[in-house]
Structures are given as structure tokens and as C-alpha cells.
Amino acid sequence: MAPKSIDAVDDQIKDVIQDLFQIQVATHNYAGPQTQQELVRLITQLAESLAVLSKDASALPDQIPPEIIDYVDSGRNPDIYTREFIELVQKSNQYLKGRSEALTGFRDVLAEEMVKAWPEMKTDVDNVLEGSNIEHTKEQKLAVQTNGTSS
Question: In this structure, is the dihedral angle defined by the CA atoms of residues 39, 45, 46 and 47, taken in order, positive or negative?
């Protein structure tokens, strides 16, 4: 049964590392023809472990973004990529929040000025604001009530 979780693949990676360590020890302690069979067995075991790991890892549903792979391939830390990405998202969120607040302010000023210019349209302006599912600010409600007719 092929492992389907990241934890199982992680365990297989640990097994491959252990196989490499055993090959390193066997190579360091090489004593000629007596240890050659053991070294061949360890290399064969490593090849089998790598084949199973490759097959099971490709079956995982999670994909690593290619940008991170390129980042690591160029010798950089993926944590730096993550930090830069988070900073970029925060900057974008701040920009969009500012835009949203500016449009909300414009909407409030426009509604206030429309009620000042055409007091008879106060009900229509309120209906449009309520229909847009956007909350009125307290300042806008007070301004409309003091400058226009209250309902």
C-alpha cells in the first residue's frame, strides 16, 4: 500500500537519509572483497528506497509552488521567500483597505451633498445606501439628519 500522507513520505525521506549514512559508513570501513557484497546490497536498497519515494511523493496532492523551488535551487532560503510574500500581501491589503475607505468616504460625502441639494431625495438616497449593503458611518447619518429632513 502506497503512503498517501506527507508524514509517510517524510518517513521515507528519513529512510533514504539513513541508507545514505549506512553507505557512507560502509565506504569508510571498506575492507576489500569481504565488504563489497554489503556495499552492493546497501546501494541496491538505496535505489529501491528512492524509487518508492519518487513514486509515492508524486502521488501527494500538495504541490510546492515553482517559485519556491527556483528560490531553493538558486541557493536561497525559502523562509525569506515566505516573508517577502507576506510583506507583499500586507502591502496590497493596506492599499486595498485605503481604497475602500476612500470610496466609503466619497460615498458618504456624495450622499450628504445630494441630500443637501435635493432634500426630497433623502429617502431614495437612504434606499440606495441600504441596498448597497454598506453601513452608514455615524458622521454621515448625523450630517444627513442635520442638513436634510429626518425620516
Answer: positive
The set of residues, in sequence order, having a beta carbon less than 8 Å from that of 87 and lying 6+ positions away, is none
34/37 Cα distance (integer angstroms): 7
Q: Are 52 and 19 in contact (CB under 8 A)?
A: no
Residue with cell 538505496: 46
What global pTM score does this model have? 0.45
More confident site: 124 or 60: 124
User: If you average pLDDT over every residue of the chain, what do you get?
Assistant: 83
Distance CA 135, CA 144 (A): 14
Q: How many CA atoms lie within 13 A of 55 on its CB side?
A: 9
